[in-house]
Amino acid sequence: MQHIIVAKPRPGVMLITLNRPKSLNALSKDLLVEVATALREADADDAIRVVVLTGNEKAFSAGADIKEMPTGHMPMWAEKNRLTSWKTIEKFRKPMVAAVNGWALGGGMELTMLCDIVIAGDTAKFGAPEIKIAAFAGDGGTQRLPRVVGKARAMLMGLTGDPIDAKTAGAWGLAAEIVPAAQTLERALTIAARIAEHSPLTAQMVKAETLMAFEKPLDESLSLERKLLLWQSEDHVEGIKAFVEKRKPKFTGR
Ligand code: CAA
Prior knowledge:
Blueprint: E1 4-10, E2 13-18, H1 29-44, E3 50-54, E4 59-61, H2 80-91, E5 96-100, E6 103-105, H3 107-114, E7 117-121, E8 125-127, H4 141-149, H5 151-160, E9 164-165, H6 166-172, E10 177-179, H7 184-196, H8 200-215, H9 218-227, H10 234-244
Parallel strand pairs: 2-3, 3-5, 4-6, 5-7, 6-8, 7-10
Antiparallel strand pairs: 1-2, 8-9
Acetoacetyl-coenzyme A binds at residues 23-24, 26, 62-67, 76-77, 103, 105-107, 129-130, 133, 135, 137-139.
């Protein structure tokens, strides 16, 4: 990997650090392909239960790599490898936590919205500046941002292109918690490790079910939920048994 660093800092947790500091972690096609490759590995590895995504103190990511953008052709986000990689991130089944310091702009902010929990440092700035280069949020932001912050705030961000600070991002629901910047990654890893203690099957279902609230009509989501097999899993039986026996459950993912 050239543009990301992959580590396993806690049991059950994969940490992916975006590593193009000279471009403020701009999301080049190669970087996105590497993130998708790491996520495919995480998906296939039963020992990985949660992924944490982070950048550096100056930038989580300043968005799509503007220098890679073609002029006068297809929009860059429609390029095959880029699109496939983005779909892999969107469809990743295991919980993802973002640890955000500094800039999270354009595609960078869109990436945080694909994470299930966002922990932001007090230096973080979120924004949709695409309009400044006569583009729009091509990686799903036009649809996800209003679902997260509501129409009026999404319009304010998308039409002015101006960023919001961490406190505002927390108040608007883009981040679950705001912490001192020096503690952002540690806090995200602690949350990831906590999630990794639980039944992996259940954590994936909680993710899928929660996302359904944004993707399907309520009656359809509820009927799908009722059909779910979780209640028949070995982990569910083990969870009940462990509770009754007053011990820690041993979850296997089956
Ligand atoms: N793509 C490529 N390179 C980028 C970049 C980006 N998105 N953002 C920053 N860089 C590069 C800069 O060109 C600069 O490189 P050089 O040193 O070679 O000149 C380096 O990173 C450092 O950036 P700055 O000198 O500009 O740093 P700054 O602290 O003065 O400003 C900033 C920081 C406000 C984030 C500014 O860099 C900026 O506005 N960046 C562009 C942000 C942007 O418009 N993002 C949206 C892209 S479009 C998108 O994401 C949507 C999509 O789906 C297509």
